[in-house]
UniProtKB/TrEMBL annotation:
Alphabetized GO MF terms: DNA binding; DNA-binding transcription factor activity
Lineage: Bacteria, Pseudomonadati, Pseudomonadota, Gammaproteobacteria, Aeromonadales
Keywords attached to this entry: Arsenical resistance, DNA-binding, Transcription, Transcription regulation
GO BP terms: response to arsenic-containing substance
Residue stretches making up the HTH arsR-type domain: 1-97
Protein known as: Transcriptional regulator
Entry coiled-coil feature ranges: none
Annotated NCBIfam families: HTH_metalloreg, PRK10141.1
Record keyword DNA-binding present: yes
Organism listed in the record: Oceanimonas baumannii
Length: 118
């Protein structure tokens, strides 16, 4: 769990390439469906779900269900230091998730994506 007293859980959660890309993708998009993440990162649903569970356990993400779809967003309880770190990472390393964003854009607009989801 990320706490104000220790940044270690945050850095452990972000130390994996897939988890960092997921966090930056969610920050950029605001809210993302699991199926969109699998498409954007070109990974399997079980792998994405495993990483999302770790990010949720670290209290970095929140989720909501809409029918069969699960959408993720940054947790409302995310502390200011974590938000600043993620925002600066997102701004400084824009090219890091550019391929994932390009793949996501090829899915079409959100209503069309829902038809492709899950």
């Amino acid at each position: 769990m990320v706490t104000a007293s220790s940044p270690l859980p945050l850095f452990k959660a972000l130390a994996d390439d897939t988890r960092l890309q997921l966090m930056l993708l969610i920050m950029t998009e605001g809210e993302v469906c699991v199926c969109e993440m699998t498409h954007a990162l070109n990974e399997t649903q079980p792998k994405i779900s495993r990483h999302l569970a770790l990010l949720r356990q670290a209290r970095l993400l929140a989720d909501r269900r809409e029918g069969q779809w699960v959408y993720y967003r940054l947790a409302d309880t995310l502390d200011e230091g974590s938000k600043i770190l993620l925002t600066q990472t997102q701004q400084h390393y824009r090219g890091y998730i550019a391929p994932a964003l390009a793949r996501l854009d090829k899915m079409g607009n959100r209503p069309d994506r829902r038809q492709l989801c899950c």
